[in-house]
User: What shape does this take?
Amino acid sequence: MAQALLEVLNLHVHYGGIAAVKGISLAVEQGEMVCMIGANGAGKTSALKALARMIPSRGEIRYGNQRIDALQSHELIAKGLALVPEGRGVFARLTVAENLLMGAYHRHDANGIAADLERVYDLLPRLLERRTQVAGTLSGGEQQMLAIGRALMGRPKLLLLDEPSMGLAPLMVQKVFEVVRRIAAEGVTILLVEQNARLALEVCSRGYVMESGSITLADSSAALLADSRVRTAYLGE
Amino acid sequence: MSPLDAGTVSSGFERFPTMDILLQQIINGLTTGSVYAVVALGYTMVYGVIQLINFAHGEVVMIGAMVAFSVITSLAGSGLPPLAIVLAGVMAAVPACMLMGYLLERVAYRPLRHAPRLAPLITAIGMSIILQHLALLVWGRNPLAFPQIIDNQVFGIGGAAISSVQIAIILMSLAMMAGLSWFVYRTRFGIAIRATAENVHIAGLMGVNANRVIAATFVIGAGLGAVAGVMYGSYYGIAHYTMGFSLGLKAFSAAVLGGIGNIAGAMLGGILLGLVEALGTGYVGEFTDLCHWPVAHGWLSERCADGGNFVLFGSNYQDVFAFLMLILVLVFRPSGLLGERVSERA
Ligand SMILES: Nc1ncnc2c1ncn2[C@@H]1O[C@H](COP(=O)(O)OP(=O)(O)O)[C@@H](O)[C@H]1O
Ligand SMILES: [Mg+2]
Assistant: This one.
């Protein structure tokens, strides 16, 4: 097995007395695209937030060859770990261009930033059209594209995506997933959290199933798509 | 003493306020208003980022004035050119206040960042009292007078007068507001400040160190406040350990008027408040002079004879206007003139 880029051992998240993540372990290898599916409230967002150090947690998080569980959230992007949060989290009062620049906040290579801005505008032409508009005026799909483009501006090695399809029309969901696929094709490692299990399993090679704070299944996407438990619980069959 | 009194004329009905008085009050209002605007920026930037009303900001402004006055007084006899002396005062006040702003955040507010909202609010009031008494210990209870080193030239325009100090205050304030706008809207760190104000957690994901941004808003606000304190002090010719209270409260009212948390709003609110205050002060005597009212008979008419007057509210009611305005804003438009969101937290 190749060296894991991300390795999580026995991760716990609590909100007050309530346990949202109950000792999950997972690993994502360099260049992989892995998904985590599960019902609303299963603890997926809590797990991603803990990985991005946005909330306190117990357990070991290894990224590259380093423990990151004692780091602060703002120290991660420079190491190449980016989270596109649930609900997109664009800065509504900043323009599209300013949002993208914020994605490159930790970088100091002006030429590289300018080149990446071009690249993002190429990948997401809608953002170019709207670059002087404040992000709050964008549609949900455009905001999702912006959130992804903003994360790309940080030159991530590992991209954590939390429900990019949430609240989007089916056509827009297709577009967003197409973009995600292209990002993965460029070599970015992706951990994708989705409630839309079928779509997620179709684009990812492997998947984890999360249920009330625990990982109950972990297998290749093909195996999960064929699993009767997954089919009844998540694929609506 | 107050230049605001220059245009307040007690007169009979036939000498009602004229254009030149109006213009004079506008000039005076622009002067104080631009000081309020610069001080209001300190309140609004901090509030925008951490939703804290830093009640000690007025005291930081006061200490800026006190430090500058001490330096200016000690250099007054040195034979240096007056402008250099004033500049030295400002150069001493700005870093002193910036350091104080930094320490305030670091020592008083940061430990309470996640405490219930009442805790930092009460701490802010406490810090304000502590700083006031610190200033009392250092500078005593007598006002410091601005030494007569500057030849304050007065220019006439349209029947009104504008002094070189007023011109300097208005220009300096405009320059600081323009500089801050450029910084906040055009620089990388400025964008990070606005991003943090919007969502500190998401800004963190971008690599923004929230502590640094929060400290910066305190330091910048304090630096601007220091200059404002020097300007305010030189305008009225004195600095006193209590001056931060009413100045701070007025600037805070200005920030609320413009929409607290909104930078353009603080500027607009400050200037508007200055104008309302000056015009209000200029005319309140006229309008509340009972001799102008049809009620003047009996003993009152005797008193009113020969241009006498019976003024209910004189220009000493100057301070009322800021608070009247604050109350009106809070009742009719709590989000302020440019504020988009009504704050959900106290
Ligand atoms: N800030 C919070 N405070 C308290 N409980 C929370 C908070 N966020 C999430 N939870 C709870 O934690 C559990 C997991 O939530 P979440 O991680 O958002 O799940 P998912 O992303 O899979 O829908 C849920 O029961 C949710 O109600
Ligand atoms: Mg979620």
Summary: Residues 145 and 176 of chain A are 7 Å apart (CA to CA). The first strand of chain A starts at residue 4 and ends at 15. Residues A 44-45, 86, 163 surround magnesium ion (ligand 2) (CB under 6 Å).
